[in-house]
Amino acid sequence: MKRFIESICKTFNCDKTRLLDIFWAIQEKYSYVPQKTLDLLSHKLKLSIPELKDTLTFYHFFHQKPSGKIIIYVDSSAISEIFGLNKIISSFEQELNCKMGEVDPTGQFGLFKTPCIGMSDQAPAALIHGIPVGKLTTAKIKKIVADLRKNILPKVQIKNKVQLRGPVLFEKHNVGESLDLLYALTPDQIIQEVEDSGIRGRGGAGFSTGKKWRFCAEQKEKQRYIVCNADEGEPGTFKDRYLLTKNPTLVFEGMILAARAIGANQGLIYLRAEYKYLKGHLQSILDQMQLQNLLGNQILDIPNFDFHIRIQLGAGSYVVGEETALLESLEGRRGEPRMRPPFPVEQGYLSKPTIINNVETFASVSKIIKNGAHWYKKFGTSSSPGTKLLSVSGDCAHPGIYEVEWGLSIRQFLKLVGATNTLAVQVGGPSGQCISLKEKNRRLSFDDLPTGGSMMVFSKKRNLLNIIKNFVQFFQDESCGCCLPCRAGNIVLNEQMHAILSSEAAEVDLQRIQNWSKIISASSRCGLGQSCTNPMISSMQAFPEIYKKNVKAHESLYRPFDVENKTVAYEQVVQLHEKES
Amino acid sequence: MTKNKKVSLATISLAGCFGCHMSFLDMDMKVVDLVDLVDLHTSPFNDLKDFTQKVDVGLIEGGVCNDENVERLRSFRKNCKILISLGECAIMGGLPALRNNIPLKDCLEEAYVNTPTTDTQKGIIPHHEDIPKILDKVYPCHEVVKIDYFLPGCPPSADAIWQILTDLIHGKEPQLNYGQIKYD
Ligand SMILES: Cc1cc2nc3c(=O)[nH]c(=O)nc-3n(C[C@H](O)[C@H](O)[C@H](O)COP(=O)(O)O)c2cc1C
Ligand code: SF4
Question: What are the C-alpha distances in Å from A497 to residues A161, A484, A506, A547, B33?
Answer without folding.
Answer: 35, 19, 11, 10, 45
